[in-house]
Amino acid sequence: MTREELHAKIKAQLAAFDANDWLLLIREQQAADIADELQQMDANEVQQLLVALPDRELADLFGYFTPAQQDTLLALFDKNDSARLLAEMAHDERVDIYNRLSDEKQKAILPKLAKKEQEDILRLAAYEEGTVGALATSAYVALRAHMTVAEALRYVRSHAEGMETIYQLYVVDGKQTLLGTLSLRDLMTSDDDAAVAEIMNTELLTVNALEPQQAAADMIRRYDLLALPVINGGDRFIGIVTVDDAMDVDVEESTEDFHKGGGTLALKDVSLREVSTWTMFMKRAPWLLILVFANMFSGEVLEYYEDTIITYVALVFFLPLLVDSGGNAGSQAATLMVRALATGDLHMKDWFKTLGKEFWVALLLGIAMSVAVFGLGVYRGGVEIAMVVSISMVAVVLAGSMIGMSLPFLLSKLKLDPATASAPLITSIADFVGVLLYFYIAVKLLGMPDIGYLPI
């Protein structure tokens, strides 16, 4: 079914609701596609369609809405529909939703849930947003070390429904201490009479619940895990982080870094389609306003070298070319450094080694670009101007690259997000430095009088 056909069928349900046809459509089509169509429609109409679904289908579909849309719809749900939704949703997803509810709605919904579900929600909700504990789910299969393989297999079969994964099993004691892990493959290929304690893996990879959620995502990616056990103080096993949740974290972090890299504050938990004009203004205005004042320094430099510009007007022609080249080189270097720091490919101890490598790369780039502009310099202003432009090109590309490479490291050292070293920020700093270098070199090579100290 095409997207146009799916849209038409959903519209038909809004016009003349038929419970059987609606349920059949939900079960035949991908929930992600249906949710995408519903998010473009009126929330009141969508709410009526959702509450008409059985619990399982409601929870599956609801999980594909954006957090902002989920909050809008939950405000329209009564406490009974909200409770049956939370009861069926994945453990980690329902905790996220519960944490966003008002205190009043939390108190209204919680008593409607089974005691086990209440305890699960309150335990996971106790962890601060952005930590591994808040990301963890308790939907795992836990075995005991004294079980035989045959007993463990029967237990897995009876408890598999609703679990995030059964491919990785966890062995705990009576105090919920994690003793080992066991893959379903190993369990199925072992003798029925063997004890779980004999075949479990006791070399554990775990992550602390209080760590940032990116730590779990990094470990899952590094060690190619399907799920990562989460422990709290005293090695108490509280849940797992699955590979799909780790992928969501990576996407969220990458999106945030991408936004910052463009000089925009991160848009969290909202799509660009839904965000308001005011929110977009507030996300984009701060950096632009800061950079307005930063760029004024370049104007001060131009005023300082006014006599040089009047004498050699041809210099102005190459100014945009040079400062843009420095900014572009800086943006390239910063992009590579920010990504390498984010993925763990580089660390602070690599700064000097990376600085040296970047110097030689930037020098070669600057020489190549200087050769490219030399002929244009001769054509526009003669050999003297061409020499000034060529030497300045090498200098500004070197400076821009050094700034772009160093700033992410400096921000990391100060415990700040390296992604803050955005392209606009790097470009503005490189522009200022580039203008200074260009006219300083011009004054020296063209034999202009020494006009004093540089305006720094």
Q: Provide the number of structural domains.
A: 3
Number of helices: 22
N-to-C CA distance:
64 Å
Give the biggest beta sheet: 3 strands, mixed
Look at the helices and sheets and give the structural class: mainly alpha
CATH top level class name of the largest domain: Mainly Alpha
Categorize the overall geometry.
Answer: elongated
CATH fold naming of the largest domain: Tetracycline Repressor, domain 2
What is the strand content? 5-15%
**Annotated CATH homologous superfamily of the largest domain:** SLC41 divalent cation transporters, integral membrane domain
Q: Mean of the pLDDT scores?
A: 83
Taken in chain order, the helices and strands follow as HHHHHHHHHHHEHEEHHEHEEHHHHHHH
Low-confidence segments = 452-456
* Proportion of helical residues: 55-70%
User: What's the arrangement of strands in the largest beta sheet?
Assistant: 1-2-3
- Rounded to an integer, what's the Rg over CA atoms? 30 Å
Count of extended strands: 6
CATH architecture of the largest domain: Orthogonal Bundle
